Amino acid sequence: MNLLNWRKEMSLGIEDIDRQHYMFFEILGRLHEAAVFESHISVLKGLAGDLCCYASLLFRGEENFIALTQDPTAREHLMEHAEFLHRVAVLEDVKILADRSRVRDIAEELGDWLEVHIGSFDHSLALRARPAQGRTALLHPTPTMDLPRLFESVAS
Ligand SMILES: [Fe+2]
User: Under a CB-based contact definition with an 8 Å cutoff, are residues 84 and 55 in contact?
Assistant: First the structure.
């Protein structure tokens, strides 16, 4: 069973961003599952590579949006992304990948990190994307919102 899932409570009310986070958890969950079920190292290597690529793309899109805002937490937000990428990069080491219990622990830690990150930094960023007319607009984003659209490029 995949324990690392995106849940509705993590929704930021912006469909594109939620889909990207959902996909992020999908890849992380598959990596965790592969470690739990002792999959071949080539499977783990592929998933670790996917996770690294997806994180880089998603963060780049988010950072482009951050650059357009006056977000006072921008610096810390970018540092969080850099720290996550550093932690994911550890999985490029074949010796670490060969230790399935370590990969499982890392995947769980990354899942915890991602959940906290979404609930704090990404949530704050989503609020900045909210137009002045009120909270309902966040739940139904308008075409004027210039948000990253990475999901399509990653999925294709
Ligand atoms: Fe973020």
Answer: yes
Domains in the chain and their CATH numbers? 14-131+147-155 (1.20.120.50)
Which residues place a Cβ less than 5 A from the ion ligand 1? 62, 121-122
117: CA distance to ligand 1 center in Å? 6
Residue 78, CA distances (Å) to 24, 87, 95, 102 in order: 17, 14, 29, 26
Tell me 123's DSSP state. H
Measured in Å, residue 3 CA sits from the centre of ligand 1 at: 22
CA 110 to CA 88: how far, in whole Å? 8
Kindly report, residue by residue over 50-108, the tens digit of the pLDDT: 999 999 999 998 999 888 887 889 999 999 999 999 999 999 999 999 999 999 999 99
Note the pLDDT of residue 128.
Answer: 83
83 CA → ligand 1 middle, Å? 11
CA of 130 from ligand 1 middle (Å) equals 16
pLDDT digits 0-9 by tens, 35-66: 999 999 999 999 999 999 999 999 998 999 88
Please tell me the distance between residue 26's alpha carbon and the centre of ligand 1 in angstroms. 17
